[in-house]
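Why do we bother with holo predictions? Because pocket geometry can differ from the apo form. Keep that in mind while you read this record for coenzyme A.
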Amino acid sequence: MKALEGVRILDMTHVQSGPTCTQLLAWFGADVIKVERPGVGDATRGQLQDIPDVDSLYFTMLNHNKRSVTLNTKADKGKEIFTKLIEECDVMVENFAPGALDRMGFSWERIQEINPRMIYASVKGFGPGPYADCKVYENVAQCAGGSASTTGMLGEVPMVTGAQIGDSGTGLNLAFGIVTALFHRTHSGKGQRVECAMQDGVLNLCRVKLRDQQRLAHGPLDEYSQAGSGVPFGDAVPRAGNDSGGGQPGRILKCKGWETDPDSYTYFITQAAVWKNVCDVIGKPEWKEDPDYATPKARLQRLDEVFDAIEVWTMTKGKFEVMEICNPLNIPVGPILSMKEIAEDMSLRETGTIVEVDHPERGKYLTVGNPVKLSDSPSEVVRSPLLGEHTDEILKEVVGFSDEEIKIAKDEGAV
Ligand code: COA
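The structure, written out:
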């Protein structure tokens, strides 16, 4: 039995943040019923299409293991069906623009009337406050959550990151909120609201920067490369390039072949505990006892010189070679892996972190699998549904409609 088997999710989500959450719940065995507008569906079905008229990878990679029902929740018959679905489901998830569900006539109060055990989970861009009504996408959240102002090179424009921390990150928070509320319901017998704001989710991931904002009031941030370079600090946490957030100096350094391979780099951390090993590896044994280099404090003034010397060594080695040499010496390094390298890495296929899926219209494609592995509830990735593929099945099995009632709903354009 899967961990969430028996939990039925009414999935009103679209684009990325909400679908990330419901896909995760579906991977753990929940029955996720994705409600989509008839003839239209989730907008991502048609976005960034690589094959004409075939569901995009954007859509397929966020909607595995779900069933799709088309339903116009603004039509009278559609509202009747929707009400029945609310009665029959444990959790409803949505990430519409603020107020959209109220405008459909399904406020939180109304939902509780229909089903007091319902857990109603929402993603919004912002929490209550001046921006509560704004529509928000990934990069807006990255900017408003403090990530962009602290990402990028010193003196250059703020930078967003390729990891979808606003969308997928908030989807993960929402999934956690839902299973927590489900657990609480086993004691209380009642549902509750779960709300996750994308700004909050990004800020939560940027906590080390809020930490540094407060440290800044007591003096310069010594471990930032900026300090060693003699550039004065302003009154807000600066962009820190590739400095590591944990206080151990680290940088991205060139490896052999960097001139032609844009990903021939390694991350290299000069962790204090293994400094002597670093000195030996890079051919600077004299730095082990030299008071100008022997302590972390002394090195902070010389980080450019130290990393230049390390880079002279890394440039003689491939990025994997650097890893092979440094790992046994406990020197933390990380090769910069391209998406091509990751896609071709068979060890990630073996763990189910990357999965090949077969789709009736697009054929085989790669997707990410469940990053959370449970020993007693393995996840199997099942292809995403076609638009409305399960409409009849859900109307019969969950709503309890007869063939005749389904025909009427279709004739009225409700499904
Ligand atoms: N039947 C009938 N109407 C439906 C429907 C259905 N099955 N599904 C959606 N709709 C309607 C909604 O009720 C809404 O109508 P309204 O504007 O009259 O109230 C309309 O479709 C569009 O919904 P909306 O959420 O406003 O879509 P959008 O494309 O304009 O905005 C976002 C997209 C993502 C910006 C917005 O949904 C948002 O800010 N969401 C919260 C934050 C978020 O999750 N952002 C990240 C997305 S990855």
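The longest strand covers residues 31-36.
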